[in-house]
Amino acid sequence: MQENIRLNAALLRKRVPNLTAAAKTVGLRPATVSNLCTGKIPVGRAEVRTIVALAELAGCSLDELILKGESMTMLETGIKVVDLFAPMIQGGTTGIVARAQIGQLVLLAEVFERLRKQGYRTVLLVPQLDKAVVEEVRSVSDALCTSIDEAFAEVNLAADKEKVVLAADRAFVLNGKLFQLRERLDEAGIAPITTLLFDPTGEAVDEEDPYGPLDTLWQLDVDLAARRLYPAVSPVHSVSALIESGMTEAGHMAVWQKAKKLLRRYREIRSLVNALGFDKIPEADQQTYRRGERLEAFFSQPFYVAEPFTKKTGENVNLRDVLHGVQRILDGAADGWEVQELAYIGGLPSKR
């Protein structure tokens, strides 16, 4: 794991719970602060006045705000698009931003299911027993809570506190109760637990900084959902401090860069193809389009929690196999495959 410098997002979350409003009062854009927390904007490229303003907001020194030589540990899920483009961080906070009805709760349930298999205790925190949320996620939740008192008690039940993942409704971010929970855990000497934030209303997608500082952001894509390519996690707009800060193995970073570049260009070409037709675009762009199509299809994946509905067995793909499969597609090894042959499979087979 490479060492680097990064912003202390956990400290900002603790000291400045309503960072969006606070940032605006000192002339900072919420999106800039959010991008600094995820590493999308490296700390080294930030303006000095921005870092100083954040330190003043948090009431801390620059040494406290900037973590030097700190490493982050990836929490592998076995979900291809997540682990490659926006991996979860052990003890970090991941926010899901999505319109309603495009698979947000299914993704949340699937992550719970997969982490349970890794020995995690899964705790769901919702403001009320919302039927839709509960039905989607309850079967894979070890505990269902409607208050921070209940959530605190459930975290304490875990013998290994680090093996807890908490999924919290955004309502607890907006009312400040999640901040209170983190304070109580900190006072009890409990290290930061892995947290997922979700928004069943779909309103977070319209805001610049919907959850405050995040370590990882999963942006769900309406276009992918409309074309039934699930999980509809955008490989272009989803980010993780682990990736953006360069704290991954060299092979991961290299494949991430090439895959993201290809998919970004593919999205541009796709608009032209829809408007002009495939034959009207240059030959080089046609190859990029074909490989982008195949790569996009490859990132669809059968989920365990969806097996009763899809009749497809859930697939778990380790990061090594993800990187290998993506690199082969980038190199043209799947150029002769039909796009649908790459959809909803696990790893990329060596032969068709």
UniProtKB/TrEMBL annotation:
What Gene3D superfamilies does the record point to? Answer: Bovine Mitochondrial F1-atpase, Atp Synthase Beta Chain, Chain D, domain 3, P-loop containing nucleotide triphosphate hydrolases
What are the record's GO terms for cellular component?
proton-transporting ATP synthase complex
Q: ATP synthase A/B type C-terminal domain location, by residue?
A: 245-307
Q: Which residues form the signal peptide?
A: none
The Gene Ontology terms for molecular function here are: ATP binding; proton-transporting ATP synthase activity, rotational mechanism
Where does it mainly reside?
A: membrane
User: Which InterPro entries does the UniProt entry name for this protein?
Assistant: ATP-synt_VA_C, ATPase_alpha/beta_chains, ATPase_F1/V1_b/a_C, P-loop_NTPase
Source organism of this protein record: Ectobacillus ponti
Q: Where in the cell is it found?
A: Membrane
Keywords, ordered alphabetically: ATP synthesis, ATP-binding, CF(1), Ion transport, Membrane, Nucleotide-binding, Translocase, Transport
Q: Which family does it belong to?
A: Belongs to the ATPase alpha/beta chains family.
Is Magnesium found in the keyword set?
A: no
Q: What is this protein called?
A: ATP synthase A/B type C-terminal domain-containing protein
Q: Which PANTHER family match?
A: ATP SYNTHASE, ATP SYNTHASE SUBUNIT BETA, MITOCHONDRIAL
